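Hi,

Apologies if this is the wrong queue. I'm a grad student, and the batch job for Putative signaling protein from Polaromonas vacuolata produced an output file that my downstream script rejects. I'm not sure whether the problem is my script or the file. Here is the sequence I used:
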Amino acid sequence: RAKQAGSNQSHFYSDQLHQSLLERAILERDLRSALVNNEFRVYFQAMVNAKDGSLGGLEALIRWEHPRMGLLFPGSFLGLAEELGLMCEIDQWVLHTACHQLQDWRTRYPLTDLKFGVSVNLSAMQLQDEDLLDSLKRTIDLSGLPAGCIELEITENVLISNPHKIASLLSAIAGMGVRLALDDFGTGFSSFEHLKLFPVHILKIDRSFVSGVGQGETSERLLAAMIHFARTLGLTVVAEGIENAAQADFCLLHGCHLLQGYYYSRPVPASDFESAFIAKFAATCVN
Ligand code: C2E
Ligand code: MG
Ligand code: MG
Ligand code: MG
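Support response: The file is valid. Your script probably expects a header line. Output copied below for reference.
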């Protein structure tokens, strides 16, 4: 009996393996055609000014509207996209779409004192792309958006492979007026050296630290110290993953400039973002 159960089990595992290989093959095939089939979407999540809750920025986040599987999150396909060498094209598309969307809002609404920009995530692969600087320039020119309205988010882990080469690339990008944010701060191979070497303007404190509010004195002190640290360096501090009022209050109290999280809004399609944030913001500007 035991033997039988054992063989059933291995059968089960190989079925499962076969299933997942099959799924991967299908996903791979679909991913290769997703861009031309226009299946990617850019969702936007608000960043609000900690002081008054007004709109202070927005982050572009990719989604994949799969024809059969429905809406897929980046965690389920970006890894594969990277393996397949599709990341640069995808990120370029996101940047293009996000810039055009913001410029469209700027022209359709009387946002004369619209100071914020759109943040776009940059993958490690893009930083290896020789064409990045030129394609960035082209995208910005084409969109008509001032370079100062564009922020690129990078994680610390992308900086460690070839720090000096990447530092000069990022300096060139910053020289164009584009602002740079260090994303998921505190989770990667954090090094104080990074902040000396790279022209970073914004520090985004990872939500794993923000969730420390109410979780004990050590967690709270750590979060407070991170905020103070970033402020001391003259950086704009963003707290990621704000899910409740206690977290928002804590981050405001300790000097975060911008707050981002489900407490304010989930990432939503452009049309929803427009009615929930842009139209309201425009109305307050007119007054
Ligand atoms: P990220 O850049 O750190 O983006 C923040 C992630 O946290 C987003 O997940 C967002 O939906 C989620 N989030 C925001 N507020 C909350 C909250 O209050 N609670 C919780 N639990 N989560 C919150 P998402 O959209 O699934 O993206 C995951 C990651 O995928 C991003 O992390 C980013 O690293 C990457 N990513 C997303 N879009 C792109 C893209 O266009 N290009 C590249 N290269 N990477 C992207
Ligand atoms: Mg990000
Ligand atoms: Mg992040
Ligand atoms: Mg993250």
